[in-house]
Amino acid sequence: MKRVFLIVLDSLGIGNAPDAAAFGDLGANTLARIARGRRFENLSRLGLGNIDGVDAVKSTDAPLAAHGRLIEKSRGKDTTVGHWELMGIVSEHPMRTYPEGFPKEVLDAFSAATGRGVLCNLPYSGTEVIRDYGKMHTETGDLIVYTSADSVFQIAAHEATVPLETLYDYCKKARAILTGEHAVGRVIARPFVGEDGNYTRTANRRDFSLEPYGETLLDVLKDEGYDVISVGKISDIFAGRGITESHPTHGNAEGMQTALAMTEKDFSGLCFINLVDFDMLYGHRQDTDGYGRALEEFDAFLPEMLSRLGKEDALIITADHGCDPGDESTDHTRECVPLLIYGKAIDPKNLGTAEGFSAVAGTVAELLGTKKRLAGAESLAGKILK
């Protein structure tokens, strides 16, 4: 094949993983939670409802895509770990988290690097932290630093108090500090606007990830001369490594339009797309209805995307973790994720359950015909190529 389009529906889990209880997520099911009273006709046509264990979406007698589910091997349930495993890296140990906030030595170094004080330094909801600390931030110029159940160092700042480029520079400084013993998966810029009592986060978020500690499929593709096109925050998640072209976006709508634009581009390789709104706007905010509407919008986008694929193209749809918007927590959930593989050369069979998100890396490598293959990245291509 010449082109593979890989779309990650950020946080669209399809039911708790076998080890969900160890993560406190027994019973989590993002898809089942948001599907109530909704119909995702095009995803159903592809075979989403035919995946083992999925009963929240109707099945079809003639699915259009190869379909299955993936179980994560990595010891984590966040964006970085999930995406890295999709590209072939299994994280044997969870990334460090800070349930009681960051230690003094980290904050002292951060303040020395930025010349600003720090507010909060606790696990917090992103919308609630600007509600509770936004006024103090705008009055003092101190930065709102907070974390979550994930391995993240988040910096919230009002765009009128701290210009975006300055905030991004502060994140780079934090990224340089948060290595070694205190290495976190991501440093995240969380800009907001508005006035006290009516602060809102903007779409100018940026993620500054650790550089992958092993070789990924993206590295292999770039080294062998393939195009590796990032849409959304993919380039951020991989610290820019293995990327040949990047298109940052400001939400699902722009991400989907950019994906369509990329179908008109003559390239050979991988177009890797992340649609972040499912997680950022709806999963973490416990907005079940909003999540459902967002998936309906993606469902409505699919026919045009499918119609633009040529005979040497494949479309893969998956996710990186769950984020059940109706459970008791605003955090990610340990779930299986869907796998849909569509193309004119793809046999739409049931793939059952694959151990490891890295099956995506193995499959993409074989579909594109790379010379090098990543160890442990099982390919499903032999089962689905006609």
Describe how the helices and strands are arranged.
Elements: E1 3-9, H1 30-35, H2 41-46, E2 66-71, H3 79-86, H4 104-114, E3 118-123, H5 126-140, E4 143-147, E5 152-158, H6 164-177, E6 186-195, E7 198-201, E8 206-209, H7 217-223, E9 227-231, H8 234-237, E10 245-247, H9 252-263, E11 269-275, H10 277-283, H11 288-307, E12 313-318, E13 337-342, E14 350-355, H12 359-368, H13 381-384
Unreliable spans are none
Total DSSP E strands: 14
Order of helices and strands: EHHEHHEHEEHEEEHEHEHEHHEEEHH
Strands of the biggest beta sheet: in what spatial order?
10-9-11-1-12-13-2-14
Spatial gap, N to C terminus: 12 Å
Tally of alpha and pi helices: 13
Major sheet characteristics:
8 strands, mixed
Mean pLDDT: 96
Q: Superfamily at the CATH H level of the largest domain? A: Alkaline Phosphatase, subunit A
Which class of secondary structure composition applies to the elements? Answer: alpha/beta
Gross CATH architecture of the largest domain: 3-Layer(aba) Sandwich
- In the CATH scheme, the class of the largest domain would be Alpha Beta
CATH topology of the largest domain: Alkaline Phosphatase, subunit A
Q: How many domain units?
A: 2
What is the C-alpha radius of gyration, as a whole number of Å?
20 Å
* Beta-strand residue fraction: 15-25%
Q: Percentage of helical residues?
A: 25-40%
Instruction: Please tell me what the overall shape is.
Output: globular
